[in-house]
Amino acid sequence: MNIEKSRVLISKYLYTELTAEEMQQLSGWIKASSANMDDFVREIVVHRAMRDQFLGNNILQSQQLMDEAELFEPRIPEQSRQLEGIELYQPRPPVVQSKKDLSVTGGNFDRSHPQWKSRSTELAGRTIALIAVGLLIAVATYLISSTQAGIAVAEVLDAIEARIDDIQTISPGRPLAPGIHRLEQGFLLVKFECEAIVVLEGPCVFNILTGNRCEILQGRICVTCPSLRSRSFVTQVRGHHVADLGTEYGVFVDENGSWETHVFEGKVAIQNELEEQEIRLHAGQSCAGPVPTLTPREGVNESRFLRQIDFEIRKKQAESGEVAVLAQLETEFRRDSALLFWLGMTPLKGGTLPVNLAPVRSGMDRVPALTQPMNLARDRQRGSVLEVLQPEHVVPMNIPGAHQALTLACWVKFYDESLTDREHRGLIMADDWNAPGRIHWQRKRDDIRITHPVKRNNRHSVYKAVTGRLVGNRWYHLVSVIDSGPNRSITHFLDGRLIESEPLPVNSPEFSLKNCTLGGWPGSHPDAADHRALNGAVDDVMIWKRALSSEEVGRLYQATLAK
Hints:
563 residues, 3 domains, Jelly Rolls, 27 strands, alpha+beta, 11-stranded mixed β-sheet
């Protein structure tokens, strides 16, 4: 349902003109999202407040007249009490207690009489109370309507060489009120009241409508919705509403009015206001307009938009002397089309969970976003890291596909190597421990090893590299490369150095992780005592669907050495 239709239904509701079918439509619209509920409540409160304000004087006057009529009923001639058989007025017979009361109940009453004073005091009290209620209603109306009149519903989280609305210097924390804004140059990272994060790339013209809705008039924006509260954030574009269903998409509008929407994570619903047509796009899909019929198409142009991770990398480059290292990470590794998964443990600004930094893909090749809370800790050397101390700290993942080659890499710190219950310490463990080709990457005693089942008969092939006792509370970079192609080997690296390589048999199965767990076995593992929790911390977990060379592993170690 588009905005105009919902407004019509709310108006009919206020004036009790809804049919049963329209009431059902309105009820469905309200239940569809919390934003719709907020809009409905706002309309009701504003309507009633305005009604009471406009009628306030009449209410006060009517009340005063009624009260005076009760006390000072006028003398009406008997013949005027009947008019063509219709009774117009039947006064109550006056109650006279004494001769003194005649001065009150008579036609010429005495305002100095105690009963008059008592009644006038009561009337004054009622009048003051009604005025106070009217003032409260006026204040409530102002607070609600002021959302449209200038109170900020968004704020700037960060900026890079940005100039907006002719303001030269934009600092974090600057509020943004509803209305049309012009980003003349640079980049802005903006957080809305609903917790949605929007990256704006200048030049750009956008209209902030509410705390969970904006309109893009020209330019590029990229929207990230990191929390449940931010879901259903709406971007309006040329007669269409793009509603977020979780978690990241970009919208582009050119000077001629043509527009495109590209979905990087999760999915969105796009609704045509005029045709009342709605389609849903999933990660790796896009669509364009204006066209008579919206049609999803496979593929996205990620380079056309500045995603939040791109913004934060660019900001880091602007502030840091490590430009060359960050550029190498960006070009050689992050943009590698074979990179399936890269989990840096630092959440993006405004978010609470780390995100997959790998390139966007369509279809089954895309690793889903993480949604489960993680036991993040602050490390003095590497900043935010995942700490796995107990089985409940492991993180479930899904790495789709079966592959001829895989490269697994991460930074890891083992807290204590002498625990008797930690003979095995899981890094990345496939949940199906007995399916052919499923990978288990772990440490056992003094070695790093890759194991995988050969057949469903509890037989596992083991490929290990002896490291010796590792120093506790020290970060190490581990890489294991599986290559069933021409090299047919499994090779292990420690801090960028090759330490062991073993050949693979000719009949090796394709390798896969699929449903897997970071930091140990999942809680559903049949042997609960054998949880293989890491008892340590991990950072920069990366998975490629190709075999990295020894030279690439060395460069990866240097590039990720400083977080």
